[in-house]
Amino acid sequence: MSTLRVRVPATTANLGSGFDCVGVALDFHDDLELVLTDDPSTLDITVEGQGAQDVPLDDTHLVVSSLLEGLREWGGERPGMMLRCVNRIPHSRGLGSSASAIVAGLAFAWGISRPGQELDRAELTRVSSLMEGHPDNAGAAVWGGAVLGWFEGSDVALVQLSVPDTIGARIWVPQFEVKTAGARSVLPEMVPRADAVAQAMAAAALPLALERRHDLLLAATADRLHQSYRAELMQSSFNLMTDLRAVGVPATISGAGPTVIAFGTSDQLAPGDVVAAEGFERHALKIGPGVELTQA
After folding, report:
1. Pick from 9, 66, 111, 166: most CB atoms within 10 A?
2. What distances in angstroms separate CA 197 from CA 145, 167, 200, 276, one per listed residue?
3. 294: part of which helix (H) or strand (E)?
4. Are the C-beta atoms of 98 and 180 separated by less than 8 Å?
5. What pLDDT, on the 0 to 100 scale, is given for residue 183?
6. Measured between alpha carbons, how far is 257 from 230 in angstroms, rounded to an integer?
7. pLDDT of residue 1
8. Peptide bond into 258 cis (omega under 30)
C-alpha cells in the first residue's frame, strides 16, 4: 500500500475591495492522509476536528468527490481509499474550507494519476477554480501567498503578489456560521455608480498596498459592493469590522463571512488587540504557503 499526504491552507478572499478576485493563503492548515489499497470498493473516512460530526463519510465527502473528479480529468483509476482528515479550518466561516477541500482532493488525484510527478499547480488551479467557481480562494490554496485571479473563458489567469513578511494577519472567528450561498443571495444585481467608482479606486490600490504601500491598506480594503449588504446575516461581525476600522485597523469580512480579518504591519494591527470582541476567537497568523503533497 502507498500513502499520500496533503497539507492545505485556509484562505481568505475579497480583502474588502478585491471582490471575487483577490485571495490570500494563511498559515492555518488541514492535514490529510490517504492510504491506497488494491480493492476499489474500499472507502473508509475518518474526520477529526472541525466538521467531524457534520461531513458525509461517503463519495459525497468534498475531498473524495473532488478526488474522483480529478481522476476523471487526468485519466486515473480509482483505487481503494482510507482517508484520514485532521480539520483545523472552520467550516462556513469565510476561511475557504470548501476551496481547501477541493484542492486537497485534486492534489490526491494528481498523486494517484501522476505518481512521482510534482504537482502541476497551473493545472490544479484551473480545475479547482472551475469546481469552486472562483480563482481567488482556489488559487491561493494552490499557490500560497496572495493572488489576483480571474477567468478568461474557461482558463484562469493568476498573478502572485509579492507581499513582504512584515505583513501579518489577525482573524476573529465567531461561533456562528454563514453559508456562502446565503451570503451571495442578498447581494444586489446593481449598485450605485458612486459605489462602483469608489470600489474601483480601492481595488486598483489593493495590490500596491499589500506589496509596498502599506500606508494605503486601510483605504484599499474599503468596500461598497458586498459587506454592507451582508451585514444583516452577521451583524456582530460587521460591527466588529467597523470598530476595528475606526481605530485604523485594515479589517474586512473574510470571504463571505462571518470571520473578520485584518492585514497589516504589527503597528497597524496592534490597535485591534484592545478592541472588544466578545463571542469571537482571535488568532494571529502569517501569510502561508500553498498546498503540499508528499508520497510514500
Report:
1. 9
2. 28, 27, 5, 33
3. strand 292-295
4. yes
5. 85
6. 9
7. 67
8. yes
Query: 197 in the Ramachandran plot: left (φ > 0), alpha (ψ -120 to 50) or beta?
Result: alpha
Reference 97, options 54, 141, 64, 59; nearest CA is 141
Amino acid (1-letter code) at residue 184: R
Burial label, 73 (beta-carbon count in 10 A; 0-12, 13-18, 19+)? middle
Looking up cell 451585514 gives 231
Compute the distance between CA of residue 83 and CA of residue 63 in angstroms, rounded to an integer: 9
- Amino acid, res. 141: A
Cell numbers linked to 177: 456560521
Determine the Cα–Cα distance for residues 223 and 73; give it in Å rounded to an integer: 37
Which of 217, 236, 287, 244 lies closest to 17, judged by CA?
Answer: 217
- Print pLDDT tens along the chain (296 aa): 699 999 999 999 999 999 999 999 999 999 999 999 999 999 999 999 998 999 999 999 999 999 999 999 999 999 999 999 999 999 999 999 999 999 999 999 999 999 989 999 999 999 999 999 889 999 999 999 999 999 998 889 999 999 999 999 999 999 999 988 888 899 999 999 999 999 999 999 999 999 999 999 999 999 999 999 999 999 999 999 999 999 999 999 999 999 999 999 999 999 999 999 999 999 999 999 999 999 88
- Number of helices (H), then strands (E), belonging to the chain: the values are 10, 11
Q: Reduced to 3 states, what is the DSSP secondary structure of residue 48?
A: strand
* 282's grid cell: 482571535
pTM of the model: 0.95
Quick one: which of 242, 269, 266, 268 has its CA closest to 253? 242
Q: Where are the alpha helices (DSSP H) in the chain?
A: 62-74, 97-113, 121-132, 135-143, 180-185, 193-211, 217-220, 227-230, 235-246, 266-269
